[in-house]
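Researcher: Good morning. I'm working through a list of sequences from a screen, and I'd like to move beyond sequence-only analysis. For each chain I'm collecting a predicted structure so we can compare shapes side by side. This is the next one on the list. No need for commentary yet; just the structure.
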Amino acid sequence: MSDASLGGSQEGTCSIRSSAGRWVLTATLLASGASFIMWSAVAVALPSIQAHFDTTVAGIQWVVNSHLLTLSAFLLIGGSLGDHYGRRKLFVIGMSIFALGGILSGFAWSVALLISFQALQGVGSALMVPQSLAIINACFPSEERGRAIGLWAGISGGIAALGPWVGGWLVEYVGWPGVFWMTIPVIIFALGATIRFVPENRDVETARLDWRGTLLVFLGLLGIAYALISAPARGWTAPLILGSLSGGVGALVAFVLLERRIRDPLVSLQIFRNPLVSGANTVTLLLYFAFNGVVVFTVLNLQQIQGYSPTEAGLGMLPPIIIITFLAAPAGTLADRFGPRLQMIGGPALVAAGIALLMTGGTDARYMAHFLPGLVVTGIGMAFVIAPLTKSALLVETQLSGTASGVNNAIARTAALLAVAVLGAVMLAAFAPRLNELLQASQLGAQEQIEIMTQHDRLGGIVIPEGFDEQSRLAALRVVRESFIYAFRWAMGVCATLALLGSVVSFFTIREEKAHQCDYRQQEERG
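Model: Good morning. Structure tokens for this chain:
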């Protein structure tokens, strides 16, 4: 295959109407769907993983965040590697590593090993996910790209929609390892489709890879995540926490300074000259923080407080994902026709309203009254914003499509990482004093109060000691459940506020696409 056939000139060679184009779309959305389904399924499995390994909230935070950390850090270099060596080649390598990490995770016999194997799977995701979107962006013509992205988001979201239900069923009837093995058949099928139908595509002129920038991003996110997750136990003023937090922030600042002065940066800052791209990425950070926070902590609420089984909790989390599945593609078509502005203002506002509805339930909340309405409204808001948000973030020159895809995906995954870390800290900060207050007002004895309070870092996973009589057991359960709901409302309040802020950012930064493309080209010509 000649260099010409590998280069950026292949843009627009696919069509949704052709058989080959549909197979390209199928391969990319299956791989992305595998990554998405893991997230939604693992979220349902977290209470069982916590109980199996007898770990604290910090333990299950790291199970999620080890994957998100490597995924977020290496997504940036993952997009550049695809531009450099070939998007299909890196797509295949990423899927292979992803599958290996999932297989090993299911065999982990300690939480430390599970965390390590999830970090490995995150590396696979980092190579796989940006290539899927970059292949679509480079292959399909601009007039079909919005629909293609909408189909990519909707159908891969449809695969992800199976995650909560299938994941819950596997946890309940097979065990938590089944959750990590469930994507293997999907990945094998996607590998076959990729090798058979996806054309290789890379840039003829490639830049040097910025490994220093990658290391700085990794260290920055690691430092911040460690500080946020460990601070509730060690104390916010502990030297290790302050050093980790300041070191993480310092590494990210150094990353920005490095990217500004080197010839071949990991992130070409020129993509942010277009205010549409900058605004879209800012909204991505805010909105995906809110949505991922809802998924993780609503699952804990349903299982640990409301008493749902893993299967029931998985079914309970299906509505927003199903709505995204069916509405994302039509929303992409609307964005192609009318521009992204209205959807990107209204979508986050709907998400904020939906999250606010989730705050109304108490310790004996009814699903149809207190969970379903909020989840439905949140799903509608996300469905209307995903396609225009993603398309706006990719309004760059074709040769930068891999990098832009990596940046947008990294921001979305970083938002999820921060949601787990920050909201975990918010929950613990609200839960512990409320628990102490309610314990002191209860009829529990001093020793019984101590036995409950020493487990405060488990949140709703607190285990009532066997020595408690029935009256004390019920009193302790009531205190734990009321304290969790109090903390849950605080966490959802943070999520709703950030989603609403995303709507405000869209109002000031998002204009109609054509006008901004013109302004961007004029700026480039003058520059």
